[in-house]
Amino acid sequence: MAMAVNETNSDSLSPNEEPKLKYDRMGNDVQNILLKDAVSCICVHTKFICLGTQWGVIHLLDHEGNTVPISQDNNQKDLQAHAIAVNKISVDLNGDYIASCSDDGKVLVYGLYTDDNAHNLTLGRVVKSVALDPFYFKSGSGRRFLTGDNKLMLYEKTFLNRLRSTVLCECEGYVQAISWHERFVAWASEVGVRVYDLVARCSLGLIQWEKSPNRSIEDFRCNLLWSAHKTLMIGWVDTIRICVIRKRSHIELQTRDVTEFLVDPIYTFQTDYFISGLGPLDDQLVLLGVPKECNAETGKAQRPVLLVADYKDCEFCEVSTDTLNIRGYEEYSCNDYYLDMLIEENRFFIVSPKDIVVASPYDIDDRVNWLAEEGKFEKAMSVLEEVGGKTSKHSMVTVGVQYLDHLISEHLYEEAAILCARICKNDKVLWENQILKFVDVQQLRSISAYVPKNLEQRLSPQIYELIFCEYLKVDPVGFLKLVQEWNPALYRTAVIVDKVLGHLMTTKVENIYLEALALLYCYQKRFDKALTTYLKLQHNDVFKLITDHDMYYVIYDRILDLITLDCDKAISILVQGRAKVPVEVVEKQLENNDEYLFKYLDAYSKVEPNGRYHGKLVRLYAKYARKKLLLFLKCSDNYPIQEALDVCQSNEFYPEMVFLLGRIGNTREALQIIIEKLQDINQAIYFCQEHNDRELWTDLIKHTIDKPECVTLLLKRIGNYVDPRMLIQNIQSGCEIKDLKESLAKMMCDYHLQMSVQEACKVITLRNYFDLHEKLIVNQQRGISVTDEFLCSVCQGRIIIRDLSDASDLVVYNCRHSFHIECLPDGVKHNNCSVCSAVKM
């Protein structure tokens, strides 16, 4: 079926506005009919189409334009109904009977399935219109039909199957159009349109048409259509009227002599076109018209238009106007075009003498097609999503692929990548096919963030490797990021390693490539190469590599490199892995670098208290951490004191020397260093107090007696430790001592306080002694409870015997040891327990 060219009037429909209707030129057998004849009228039924031609022939077609046999024996393809052009065809609701009329004066009622109730009338006058009762097929309906010439005639079947005719109305001019719906009939004559009630057998009124001095309404065909129950559409010349058959109220009927129903014109519109046909499209109006003005260049008629308009708000508002490509339109007037329709399907049949075009609303596929052609792919996909993402012709994938191609052609690569993820989802083949399009434009970087990375949905390894290669060439940072983030199971790491090595051969070596290479080696479990690469990079990830993969065994000869890279981290790893990296190995590696060795041994000594390297640490502390040396010396007992003292002496570390000398018992030399080198009398006093040695105090007094300021301090603090007379007797006469009175007073106070404390302690001690002695005597004088549990300490027999014949004397001491008298040596009772006496001895 060929598609009619659809030209849209830009004045009434924006180029970006979605069209309402699509157009298909009817083909098949109807094309052969139109080659030989021309269409004069059409009647569309839900079952078929009836075409009347200029040669008086009636053709029966299906809705696709194929000929349907019209005779009951299926041998006759057409019906020669009239001698000249068929003016009008009418079909009953059931599609069982066809009626036609012509200027030859004949009226034909033809049964498609039976000859019963068929008629062939010769009226002898021009018959312009005919209408079958919609229920003509029903028995009991009266088998009625109407004809229109210069009067409106009703024919109905009577008793004995006779046909009776009744003149319903004498008309002015010809009855050029009739439309029958239920009990109402509308017809048009020169004065206007009348509506007749066949039940009441009365006219409901005349709808007069305005006459123009420039044109006569007789020259234009009136188009009548019952669009709905009791709704009549009229299109005549350039005016549209929509009328409603309304039932009068009971009050009106009782008070006035009027008909039960009346015709109420509710809408009247004037158009810019001569009207060839009209009909409803849901809540809108479809109009077939011809522009009033001829073509300015050729002087001939312009193309007809099919117009869709809104009219419910009392305004005629054009929604879309489509200019139709009808064959031979230049030679036709508005009366040469016909519009018939299938209201239930919203299908419109546009007829000219040599052409038939079918207009129908855009379905989902048509909308998607148009939106895609207009580049509105997002809207097209939204339309598909509303119907579940798929139709008979389109799917989210097919439209999405078109959209993807469009975005790539417009260089909108990021948007294309997002769309790719949206349409491909879990379809691996579709993913790979679309990714190849990004390969062609070298924009794999745009799609890299959206490719599936889940192992269950992964694509072919080659796809991921292509992405790596593009990043490798143009984006080193992005390449490293991919290596860090992507699961190595997605691709072949060996391939990427080879690509990186090849790239490094031809370009300047960048650290970022080496970092990526180290990660790839890790993925391959080639940790030794990864370690070498990280060390070459001086990258801190080397430490994580060692701990994560237990690589202590390979770093024996690289300890210095690791410490040089990051001393703290390296030493932390070495200390943590001391069971795998022996301290001897580290010591050997660092033997030429005392500072690193010190830091390592310092950390090692804190977790290993064996003190094996404390002697070496003394020397290293003296060299690199003098402030820690004294504390170390005090906390450790695992260093050679003499060696430590030699180190301190060589470096003149006097506080450390004082401690070491004190530790080996050379307190007098230590005190001398405090006095002479450190010149700290307070420390000297503390030192003497700590060791509490009378000789030390004597030496301190001897060395400081000639220094009045030192004498003052001694006077204040010596009273608690030694006899103050030792100091006072050595003070030279005439020596000026600052604060002598206060110092002496404090010294005497301290000395008396000490004496008082000693006397008090003595009294308390004596009192405690006598109290305890008295308590002891009382306890020893108490009786002892002897039970069955007591055993003889010699024979281990029970002390208490129930059989008195075997009983013997007992001896029980306060220490609770018990004996049979005969078990004692020589049977002699002693004052002291023999067991306890033996223990004391």
Detail the topology: elements first, then pairings.
Layout (H helix, E strand, L loop, with lengths): L5 E3 L12 E5 L3 H8 L2 E6 L4 E5 L3 E5 L16 E3 L5 E6 L5 E6 L3 E6 L7 E4 L6 E4 L12 E4 L2 E7 L5 E8 L6 E5 L2 E6 L2 E6 L4 E7 L14 E6 L2 E6 L2 E9 L2 H6 L5 E10 L2 E9 L2 E8 L13 E6 L6 E8 L13 E5 L4 E6 L2 E7 L2 H10 L3 H10 L9 H14 L3 H12 L3 H13 L3 H4 L13 H14 L1 H10 L7 H14 L4 H13 L3 H11 L3 H8 L10 H7 L1 H10 L6 H7 L4 H14 L6 H11 L1 H10 L5 H11 L2 H10 L3 H12 L2 H11 L2 H11 L3 H10 L7 H4 L11 H42 L28 E3 L5 E3 L13 H7 L1
Antiparallel strand pairs: 1-26, 2-29, 3-4, 4-5, 5-6, 7-8, 8-9, 9-10, 11-12, 12-13, 13-14, 15-16, 16-17, 17-18, 19-20, 20-21, 21-22, 23-24, 24-25, 25-26, 27-28, 28-29, 30-31
In short:
It is found in: Lysosome. The protein has 841 residues and is of the alpha+beta class.
Which range best describes the helical content: under 10%, 10-25%, 25-40%, 40-55%, 55-70% or over 70%? 25-40%
How much of the residues is beta strand, in percent? 15-25%
Task: Give the rounded overall mean pLDDT.
Answer: 85
Distance between the termini: 134 Å
Q: Please give the count of helices.
A: 29
Assembly category: single chain
What is the 3D shape? elongated
Instruction: Give the spatial strand order of the biggest sheet.
Output: 1-26-25-24-23
Taking pLDDT < 50 over at least 5 consecutive residues as the criterion, the unreliable ranges are 1-13
Helix/strand-derived category reads alpha+beta
The tally of strands reads: 31
Specify the biggest β-sheet. 5 strands, antiparallel
- Gyration radius, in Å: 62 Å
Structure, described:
This protein has 841 residues and is of the alpha+beta class. The protein has a 5-stranded antiparallel β-sheet, with no helix packed on it. The chain has a 4-stranded antiparallel β-sheet with strand order 2-29-28-27, with helices on one face. A 4-stranded antiparallel β-sheet has the order 3-4-5-6, with helices on one face. α13 packs antiparallel against α14, α18 crosses α19 and α23 (667-678) runs parallel beside α25 (694-704). The chain is elongated and about 175 Å long. Residues 1-13 have low confidence and may be disordered.
